Every structure is written in C-alpha cells, then in structure tokens.
Amino acid sequence: MGVRGWTRLVIAGAAGACLFGAVATSAQSVRRVARADVAVREAPVVVELFTAQGCGGCPEANQRVETLVDRPGVIVLTYPVDYWDYTGWTDTLARPEFSERQQAYRQALRLRAVSTPQVILDGYRTVAPRDEDSLGVAVNEESARRLWAPDIEFRTSGDRVGIGSGRVEDGGADVLAVVYTPGPVLVRVESGDNRGRVVRHTNVVRSIQPIGEWTGRPILLSLPDELEPGDRVAVLIQSREDRHILGAAVR
Predict the structure, then answer these.
(1) CB neighbour class for 85 (10 Å; exposed up to 12, middle 13-18, buried from 19)
(2) d(CA 197, CA 83)
(3) Which of 69, 95, 70, 65 minimizes the C-alpha distance to 80?
(4) Which residue among 91, 159, 175, 205 has its CA within the 20 to 30 Å range from the CA of 191?
(5) What is the pLDDT of residues 72-111, one digit of tens each?
C-alpha cells in the first residue's frame, strides 16, 4: 500500500513516520531524544474520565482533567455515566454503554467497585483526580513508559484508517472508533447534588464502537460515517486480555 492518499494525524511525539511509505523514518531515529535517560513513546497517553452531572465531586474533577486537553501527547475522552441518575437528575449526556465500559475496566483491573469520578490511563491504570499535581504526575509517568505502538494513519478522504504491524498479546486487540465533541460542553443541573450549578465537561464522547480486530498485521478499516460537523474520532487499539491501550490517534 503506497503513501499516496495517506496522512498521519496526532501521533504524539513521533516525527513524520509513514506507515506504508518507502521513506519512513526508522523506529530508532524516531526514538532519539536530547536526553538519553528519557524513554519516548510513539503514541499519546489516553486519559479516560468517567463522570456524572449528578455526582457532587465530579465538576472539580472535570476541571482538573480539562487542564490536560491542550497538552501535547495526550488524548482526553470524557464518558458521562448514567448510574447517578437515581439522585434526582437525569444526566443529559450519559449513555449506558459508557457505564458498561467502566464496568469492563473494573473487572480487568480487579477493582471492588467503580468510582465516580474515575480516570483510567492507557486502559490499565486507575487514577483518582484529587488534584492537578497527582494527575499530572501520573500522566508524566505514562508518557515515559516504553510503548512499541503500531503506526496509525488516516486516509485523506477521512473514511478509513490503516493500522501497521506490531506486538500484540494473546487474544489480539480490538480497534475502537470513539466519536467525541471537542472542547467544552456546559450543562445547567436543575436537581440532585449539583442543583443550580453549571457543570462543565470537555471532549464528551458521543459513541464508541469496534471497527475491527488487530492481530499484529497491517489492516485497513472503515471509520464511522454518522459524524456530525465538528466531531472528532479517536482510534484506540485495545488489548482484549488486559484492556491495555496499545496505540491511539485522533482525526
């Protein structure tokens, strides 16, 4: 598959490596950095926030996570969950599948229960966003973790994505398309714990769907076609066995 018709988008820290081109930058040269003691990864850190409009402690956590949105090498995704609706306010952005995703993490991480708010980094590490410092430190640690991520490239037409070759654990990995609304979304809450408050969210997920299976070999997959103007799509390569996110990119 030639380089014509392809473009790389939002692969944090990687300087112009091309998935199928003859002029691809070698992995060794991509990993060169000014400081030899820093391990550079070729994929962004994926920060997934599970939150709810009816949760009294969530607005502050939303704000802390939002400080990461413009940080290079980070993808922030917000999943509003519906299990706080019993408090008297029906979350206007929540979807049952987001609660199901959080429960899947609970099982994979062997947690006693889910918590709200809750941050999952790269699909395998849970963080309580108590303050910006602890959250920032955790993201820094993930940024320094070695990751041999496969290349992810989008067709310039915007309808397909290519996944390169790489390492994958037994059981393979799912390729997920996460459609989200970039930037802030403000909702005034009229009842429940946050009654009278305007709750601010950022990068709110609208849908998440599997678009294919990755077994370590290059593949070409179709992206969702029901996008609205302004939507963005995060493509996640997620291990089925332990839920680790092996690579990610945004169109």
Answers:
(1) middle
(2) 19
(3) 95
(4) 205
(5) 999 999 999 999 999 889 999 999 999 999 999 999 999 9
